[in-house]
Amino acid sequence: MNPNESSRLVVVSNRLPIVLEKSGSGHVVKSGTGGLVRALTPVLSHRGGVWIGWLGYGEDEVADLKEALGEGSRSVGYDFEPVHLSRQEVVGFYLGYSNSIVWPLFHDLLGYCSFDPDYWYTYLHVNRKYARAVHETTRSGDYVWVQDYQLIHLGAYLRQVDEKRKIGFFLHIPFPPLDIFVRLPWRAQILRALLAYDLLGFQTWRDRRNFLTCLQQLLPEVRITGKGTVVRAEAGDRTVSIGTFPIGIDYRSFASASGGEDVRARETELRSRFGDCKIVLGIDRLDYTKGLPERLQAYKNALERYPDLHRKVILLQVVVPSREEVPEYGSLKGRVESLVGSINGKFGTPGWVPIQYHYRSIPQPELIALYRLAKMAFVTPLKDGMNLVAKEYCACNPGHGTLVLSEFAGAAAQLQRGAMLVNPYDIEGMADTLHAAVMRPDDECRVRMRKLKENIRKQDIFWWVDRYLRAAFDRALGDFPGQEEYLPRMSLQGPNRE
Ligand code: GDG
To answer: Which CATH class is domain 251-459?
Structure first.
């Protein structure tokens, strides 16, 4: 892709995509299994590359770390370069600035923000540390691709020591509208830091438009030119390209795993356990952005108003533990569990538990069996950069299912023609949609699911990497359907209401 084949790809993310497993008296490093790793691995190993990030462990916790990393690198064909963080750095940078300021603010949830200035200074210090690691382990001809909101300042620091570097950035979470973004005490610093990159990538047109509006209002000296997938911002003597690149999944691998014998056997086992009940599936990290209490309220509302759902439907909700050290996550867990308890207590009968709740991570084959089994996926974040669960469900489901998706997930712009969209704040609207989705005949579902699958297959994770790197090296990009949809088309009337 790059005319200069000797340049390597350097990916930098908050965490390294690896798992350390105990082996005898030492450790082995296993590469992570997410879509991003799978998509980047061929590019990294083909061109030679490095992945730089925090290990998630203290330096002294793993004695044979160097050896294990070297071994791991040899097996995947590219290098892992760890950044070590002290406990104090983790608290200020990760739990503080990243997860108690940027994460809630960028999801429009101001009430969860704690704008502690110490968090900001630790964030800057840690970004300098990552920039130093990049500078020390890479060459100036390498392409550096920084991932996500924790590392916005990395590019600016790297440019201070090497002005000519080619550096790109991709934001996995939403970019907020102007009136939310301006609450950030360090708003101008963040915008200027973003302008240090050569290419900025956003998930959707909505996020890019929000960013451009903030730029025009807060830094009016910046000139924006062009239109289409990539526009340019001219800031002094620098030109920054700004594009929309909706992230996808490894469609083929999900679809083929879904046809595998082990998965189908597990599906049959689960089917016999649930009998004739239709499964409504929720899969989420424990996070206040995912709209869990609102979803449970909607399910309760549906059971109250639609008695024909009783003993015919089960909500299977998997909540994956996450950020347990941030206090808001603990109270959210309490709220979710109390709602589950009260709904089961109110509606349950001998032989029917309306909600099956699991607070743990489940193995991938089990997850795929659930995607196959479910008559409906209930994906209702209050706001989400993309939401990969929505795409994975469609890739794996044989066709009898319906995707019920929040209008405020990035995926909604892309999947609006096959999914049933809901406003996650509208409890009755979600309840009505749930009822309609569960009752929808399988044949009708198949037609819509085929469209969804086609869309997700075409814009998969490899498409995403390819488009981003093409834009990074100024190669021509074709347009893609729906690229300029700000928000999906919304219905202004809920069914059954005045
Ligand atoms: C951020 C943005 C954006 C979940 N539970 C289990 C499990 N998972 C896997 C899913 C999926 C992933 O985790 C979750 O991805 P999401 O996209 O839904 O959400 P975030 O973690 O918030 O990701 C998001 C994404 O970045 C990519 O740009 O889409 O908007 O917030 O892949 O399958 N996997 C297994 N067991 C579980 O219990 N094996």
So the answer is: alpha beta
